[in-house]
Amino acid sequence: MRRQLRFFLLVLSLVLGLTSRTSAGKSQKNGNQDPTFTTIDFPGSTATVGRDVTANGHAYVGEYDDITGHHGFLLESGAFTSIDVPGGVKTDAHGINARGDIVGVFLTGDGQSHGYLMNRDGFSSFDVENATGTSIMGINDHGDIVGGWCDGTITPCPVGGEGHRGFLLSDGQFTTIDFPGATLTQAWKINAQRDVVGAYLDTAGHFHGFLWHVGEFESIDVPGSVGTLALGINNRGEIVGSYCTTMPCGIPLVNNHGFVLRQGEFTSFDFPDANNTRAFAINARGDIAGTYRDFNNKNHAFLIKRKGDDAEDDDKD
User: Domain range for residue 244?
Assistant: First the structure.
């Protein structure tokens, strides 16, 4: 596939708005057409990371740290719920679909990672056969899941680290997703058309995003970047992620800027008053979920609500 790519830097003049009760954070906006930026912090947390948001914007998932450990969370209708997989020592919540099914990763005491699904019936764990570690990063409204698994070359298996291979599980059929020639492939999100986005590491040690469509790969690189991660996709094919212009790149807390790839055009953005921004998901309306690091070196989750005539209020994801 070929795509003409143009790069646009989004420069926003922002003023401080009202405190958001539902997010225990702050909102910033400029006029009726500009995006609204909202900070989300789990109450009492020392760090919060945002991972996914439903199409209608009513439910949001991520993870947080507090004095008791590392937990997933669900924010729905202004109320926070902590997510801890029974028997796990750490839990991340990475994806949510329109049914409210939540997927993620949990670690056991031996340091091994396992995928999980949480729905109305409770928790169920998932491990790729013969893997030394499994992570689930995304779920669509059909119940298809994507993530990564370790093939045993690296132990213990770091989530998203070397030795990882991507996967898709759809209608009971398991498919490995390996970008050709890559040393690492991680699948992050999947939309209703079963388009998958993720990231791969080349032999020179640089990260690139990818789009996997009907078994065909396309690289995604923000112009001028030294590393790009494609982390979210919606049903309209809009893609979000993060990129770096200087090394090191790919480390969650260093040198990252957010981007949106919409109709072949890149738009870069940084959360206001942040030194690091990563976008992890975009819903059908164009709302973006992610995380940023402030200048006091604290991580916060965020939600950017898109304004304008092209923002759709539907229940597709």
Answer: 6-305
Q: Report if residue 200 sits inside a domain.
A: yes
Tokens linked to 109:
């005491």
For residue 94, give the nearest of 243, 289, 315 by alpha carbon: 289
pLDDT tens by residue, 142-200: 999 999 998 877 666 655 555 689 999 999 999 999 999 998 999 999 999 999 999 99
Q: Is residue 314 part of a domain?
A: no
| DSSP E strands, 127-283 | 133-139, 145-150, 164-170, 173-177, 184-190, 196-201, 207-213, 216-220, 227-233, 239-244, 257-262, 265-269, 274-282
At which residue do the structure tokens 């396992």 appear? 114
Beta-strand pair 15-20/6-9? unpaired
- Is 130 within the bounds of a domain? yes
> In which residue ranges of the chain is pLDDT below 50?
1-26, 29-32, 309-310, 312-317
What residues contact residue 2 under an 8 Å CB cut-off, 6+ apart?
A: none
Counting the structural domains of the chain, the total is 1
